Amino acid sequence: MPVTPDRQVVEIDGRRLSLSHLDRVLFPATGHTKAQVLQYYARIAPVMVPHLDGRPASFVRAPEGPEGESWVAKNPPPGAPGWVRVVPVEHREGVTEQVVVDSTAALVAMVNLGAYEVHVPQWTAAAGPDRHDRLVLDLDPGPGADLVVCCRIAQRLRQLLDDDGLTAHAVVSGSKGLHLYAPVHPACGRAVSGYAKGLAARMMGEHPGLVVVSMTRVERRGKVLIDWSQNASAKTTAAPYTLRLRELPAVAAPVTWDEVAACRDPAELAFTPEQVLDRAEEFGDLLAPLTADATRGHLP
């Protein structure tokens, strides 16, 4: 296979990969090419892969970028290398084989096939879908609300979680809202979902004019939806550090609680891939405690 400026053969983790369509512009608004996206994932992999490893991944595939056709894929993309690890996962529609992204090479291989956005569940394949090891709350602002309002709600949720012995970590979603994660000792998925639902309901009780737990759009105007349902075993969440397929190449990026408290404009917590790489170089993985057994709390 000839090597051209649009195609390069590289070796990553001892695996040989042929990277193609490198000069394809995926984000016209910023000019980001596929080569730049691949470079981002290759460089962010040391802090991203620990949050993917062991979890069956699904992908938002968009070979032409966010302006082209896109779809959610659970099965490995056509052309996936045979060495990429897959695990069987049972869904309502049957059993599917899903990729486990456990290395830089596997991550780059998926991105090379147009799987630009990575989503994972709150459980590992080894433990099974009914043993969740983390809790997630997705704070999604409705019309008239924004990330700043999400940050204020997140601070209160952090207090409530801390009161219950759980440690919250914040990740801007790369879209409009904020994700809160808390590592937990493996627990029944229904128990985690039930606790998350109760927490969201408590917040709505405290702030009925600001928080909703229903996805009905009429109810959401000027309010923030606390989406607790992503704790269901069948659901997934955009993975930490994943690129989001929006007009601009934003990233689901971990942030500090000081940054959450200081946020007065959504633009303050919107990061490009290059900025996220700089942050990872400066701070390391702000989410590292999420994967540490010592930080896991027990559900009350």
Describe this structure in words.
This protein has 300 residues and is of the alpha+beta class. It is 27% helix and 26% strand. The protein has 7 helices and 16 strands. It has helices at residues 34-48, 104-112, 147-163, 189-206, 217-220, 257-262, 273-283, and strands at residues 7-12, 15-20, 25-27, 32-33, 58-61, 71-73, 86-91, 94-99, 115-120, 131-141, 169-172, 178-188, 211-212, 224-227, 237-238, 253-255. The strands form 5 sheets. A 6-stranded mixed beta sheet has the order 13-14-10-12-11-16. It has a 4-stranded antiparallel beta sheet with strand order 6-5-9-15. Helix 1 (34-48) runs antiparallel to helix 2 (104-112). The chain is globular, with a radius of gyration of 19 Å. The mean pLDDT is 95.
Write the layout of secondary structure elements.
Blueprint: E1 7-12, E2 15-20, E3 25-27, E4 32-33, H1 34-48, E5 58-61, E6 71-73, E7 86-91, E8 94-99, H2 104-112, E9 115-120, E10 131-141, H3 147-163, E11 169-172, E12 178-188, H4 189-206, E13 211-212, H5 217-220, E14 224-227, E15 237-238, E16 253-255, H6 257-262, H7 273-283
Parallel strand pairs: 13-14
Antiparallel strand pairs: 1-2, 3-4, 5-6, 5-9, 7-8, 9-15, 10-12, 10-14, 11-12, 11-16
